[in-house]
Specification:
This protein is mainly beta and about 110 residues long. Helix content is about 5%, strand content about 65%. Keywords: Cell outer membrane, Membrane. It comes from Iodidimonas nitroreducens.
């Protein structure tokens, strides 16, 4: 067994977040057609907030093995399943006022040599 090296790693993560978005209104301050449309009106918060909660959990795993053929040559293989959580501030609300799906992006990779 002195020729073998094994690695293993496991991670479990849970995220919970509260989100809120303020509604907006626009007000036309100028109707001069020579001005760009964005300069003709002002958009401001109206004090109406939509609030919600998001949560998810995910796991990651890494496995690796190395076999020493000689003192100078080895064979290896590894594989991993990981994830990225989206930013909570990127979550928007659907037309019913519910937060949209909040799921992790799964990353899988493997290599050998």
């Amino acid at each position: 067994m002195d020729r073998w090296v094994f690695d293993i790693g496991l991670r479990v993560e849970k995220i919970l977040g509260d989100i809120s978005r303020e509604g907006s209104q626009s007000f036309q301050v100028n109707d001069d057609p020579s001005l760009a449309p964005d300069l003709q009106s002002v958009i401001f918060g109206n004090g109406d907030f939509t609030i919600g909660e998001v949560d998810t959990s995910e796991w990651a795993l890494a496995l690796g093995a190395l076999y020493k053929l000689t003192d100078n040559i080895s064979l290896y293989a590894n594989g991993a399943r990981g994830f990225f959580f989206p930013e909570i501030r990127s979550v928007s609300f659907n037309s019913l006022g519910e937060p949209q799906t909040f799921k992790a992006e799964i990353i899988k990779q493997a290599e050998a040599g």
